[in-house]
Design goal:
- By secondary structure, the chain is mainly α.
- It has ten helices and no strands.
- It has one domain.
- 70% of the residues lie in helices and 0% in strands.
- The longest helix has 22 residues, at 139-160.
- It is globular.
């Protein structure tokens, strides 16, 4: 389990946004919001590069929860191994060891991990994210609402439909929602003060 966690942390910590920015001659830590994530790359380099970064960051979480549990880890429950891998991948993205533990906010990597663990609630959250960003042009608000939607959607789907969401996954989602809220604390302050960044507006 410790090996799985270390591998997932190292894998999740790959700074996609930083590497893409460097390939285009820019250090994303010194421009825009300074965040090492897809939204900042989108703002600085355009939607093609931003979407590419978000896709790769999602893949980091998805691969961690789907492939790392296939390692020979003894008698450990596969669900718990996947959860350990997911948590470690998200932490690796936020506290990347390759950039002095300064990474992104973990939303895309968390979404990828949740997609691998519970795809239907993840798609519901993705719909909330898309509708929010489309209507408000505020990515941080979409991220916060999507993170809060997943636990509720997972609970309701598990309770009232044939879709099964393991209880540890539900608690993992609750923890992720709290963690994403914490990583967006500066965005929340700007949302409250009305100064948060909006695409298409200054």
């Amino acid at each position: 389990m410790a090996i799985v966690a270390l591998l997932a942390f190292a894998w999740g910590g790959v700074p996609t946004a930083f590497l893409i920015g460097r390939s285009r001659g820019i250090d994303v830590r010194e421009h825009g919001s300074g965040n090492v994530g897809g939204t900042n790359v989108l703002r600085l380099l355009g939607w093609q590069w931003g979407v590419a970064v978000m896709a790769v960051d999602m893949a980091k979480g998805f691969v961690a929860v789907r492939w790392l549990p296939q390692l020979p880890v003894g008698e450990a429950n596969t669900v718990y191994v996947a959860l350990v891998a997911g948590v470690a991948a998200v932490l690796g993205h936020v506290f990347t060891p390759y950039l002095r533990f300064r990474g992104g906010k973990g939303v895309a990597t968390a979404a990828g991990a949740l997609l691998g663990l519970a795809p239907v609630p993840t798609l519901v959250s993705a719909g909330v994210f898309g509708l929010t960003v489309f209507s408000t042009r505020v990515v941080s608000l979409g991220s916060l609402l999507a993170a809060g939607t997943f636990p509720l959607a997972a609970f309701l789907l598990d309770r009232y439909t044939v879709i099964v969401v393991h209880e540890p996954v539900l608690w993992f989602a609750v923890g992720l929602a709290a963690f994403v809220t914490w990583t967006h604390r500066d965005n929340i302050r700007r949302l409250v003060s009305g100064t948060e960044h909006r695409f298409g507006r200054r």
